[in-house]
């Protein structure tokens, strides 16, 4: 098959490789679409994967080609999307269904071969069927949609809660959409790129957009909330300044969610640390998503809300490329030479 193979940091090649071979409990999937995650760009261009050579890509949708052993109710021809974290199934966290906290997990696209390929192998237990009226392209966004949902469920969003979302990439907009679905009140979207804010406004009708290059979001939100701050602030940009702002934006007794993968170390001024104490903030880390039936499988919820048309992911897709263009795609995203939101690779 053809695949995009990472040989070393920055050395991503579109080339012929052997077809994956599946073993007991696994399936072979013909990839129909694979999203490029914000985390894939530094993984390919700066940090590398856990092993080389390795095929990146963890936002996969596709069709089952073959199965091995007893793959449950999954059969040839099924349309599926793949939970990319492969839990060990044995550790204490796996036993209580908290797979995202597994002590010894594998991961599609960073620890084992992923979806930037014609075919990918995955355990049948990691699959979820895609509803009839959800396209493969939409289904490829189940992972980021579930990551966003998970962060909001961590923070226990309540009706009329005011939210500030720092970072308006795909995850930021998904957070805002979910917050709206959950009945949040004012939703402030913050970014330094005007184009990203405009995109969120035009495609999704969000109106409380703050360009933090021009305006201090702390001032703006203080003004808009009568000095109080927001109930929930979510850091989804992964830069030190937004982490600091998230803490500053939360009201007394408010919640702060750390979701973005931080690029670089963060120094917090004494004043900010002190405000965490004095405001009695609740800080949540959020990692991945829930893929267990209890309390709720967030992947099922994401697909369900796509199916009923409440969660709109299609407008997020700004670019679709043939997989053979993978090198140019990463160059473009790394250098930000074009505006993009969600970028899909199609084998
Ligand atoms: Zn992702
Ligand atoms: Zn485990």
3D architecture notes:
By secondary structure, the chain is of the alpha/beta class. The chain has 2 domains: 2-144 and 289-346, Medium-chain alcohol dehydrogenases, catalytic domain (Quinone Oxidoreductase, Chain A, domain 1), CATH 3.90.180; 156-285, Rossmann fold (3-Layer(aba) Sandwich), CATH 3.40.50.720. 29% of the residues lie in helices and 27% in strands. It is built from 11 helices and 17 strands. It has helices spanning 40-47, 92-95, 136-139, 142-154, 170-181, 194-204, 217-224, 240-249, 270-278, 298-307, 326-335; strands at 2-8, 11-16, 26-36, 59-67, 79-82, 85-86, 106-107, 119-123, 127-129, 163-166, 187-191, 208-211, 230-235, 250-258, 282-285, 317-322, 342-346. The strands form 4 sheets. Strands 3, 4, 5, 8, 9, 16 and 17 form a 7-stranded mixed sheet that branches. The longest helix is centred in the middle third of the chain and has 13 residues, at 142-154. It is globular, with a radius of gyration of 20 Å. The N and C termini lie close together (10 Å). The model has no long low-confidence stretch (mean pLDDT 97). One zinc ion is lined by residues 87-88, 90-91, 93-94, 102-104.
Strand content: 25-35%
Structural class: alpha/beta
CATH C-level class of the largest domain is: Alpha Beta
Helix content: 25-40%
- Count of domain modules: 2
CATH topology of the largest domain: Quinone Oxidoreductase, Chain A, domain 1
How many DSSP helices? 11
For the record, the CATH architecture of the largest domain stands as: Alpha-Beta Complex
The biggest sheet amounts to: 7 strands, mixed
**How far apart, in Å, are the first and last alpha carbons?**
10 Å
Element pattern in H and E: EEEHEEEHEEEHHEHEHEHEHEHEHEHE
Low-confidence stretches: none
Mean pLDDT: 97
Bound ligands: zinc ion
**Overall strand count:** 17
Outline type:
globular
In CATH, the homologous superfamily of the largest domain goes by the name Medium-chain alcohol dehydrogenases, catalytic domain
Radius of gyration: 20 Å
């Amino acid at each position: 098959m053809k695949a995009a193979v990472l040989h070393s940091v920055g050395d991503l090649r579109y080339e012929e490789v052997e077809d994956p071979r599946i073993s007991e409990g696994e399936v072979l999937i013909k990839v129909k679409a694979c999203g490029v995650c914000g985390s894939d760009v530094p993984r390919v261009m700066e940090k590398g994967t856990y092993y080389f050579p390795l095929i990146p890509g963890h936002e996969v949708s596709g069709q089952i080609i073959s199965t091995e052993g007893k793959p449950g109710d999954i059969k040839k021809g099924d349309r599926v999307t793949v939970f990319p974290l492969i839990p060990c199934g044995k550790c204490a966290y796996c036993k209580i269904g908290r797979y995202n906290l597994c002590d010894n997990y594998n991961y599609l696209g960073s620890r084992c071969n992923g979806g930037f390929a014609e075919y990918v192998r995955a355990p049948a237990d990691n699959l979820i069927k895609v509803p009839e009226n959800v396209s493969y392209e939409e289904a490829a966004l189940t992972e980021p949609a579930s990551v966003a949902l998970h962060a909001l469920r961590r923070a226990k969003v309540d009706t009329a809660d005011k939210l500030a979302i720092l970072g308006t990439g795909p995850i930021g907009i998904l957070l805002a959409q979910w917050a709206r679905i959950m009945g949040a009140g004012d939703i402030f979207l913050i970014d330094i790129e005007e184009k990203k804010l405009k995109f969120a406004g035009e495609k999704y009708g969000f109106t409380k957009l703050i360009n933090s290059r021009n305006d201090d979001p702390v001032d703006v939100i203080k003004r808009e909330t009568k000095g109080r701050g927001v109930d929930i602030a979510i850091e989804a940009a992964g830069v030190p300044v937004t982490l600091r702002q998230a803490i500053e934006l939360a009201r007394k007794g408010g919640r702060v969610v750390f979701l973005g993968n931080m690029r670089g170390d963060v120094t917090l001024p004494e004043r900010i640390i002190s405000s965490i104490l004095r405001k009695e903030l609740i800080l949540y880390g959020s990692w991945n998503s829930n893929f267990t039936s209890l309390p709720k499988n967030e992947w099922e919820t994401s697909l369900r809300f796509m199916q009923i048309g409440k969660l709109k992911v299609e407008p997020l897709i700004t670019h679709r490329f043939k997989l053979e263009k993978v090198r140019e795609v990463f160059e473009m995203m790394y250098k930000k030479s074009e505006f993009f939101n969600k970028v899909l690779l199609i084998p």
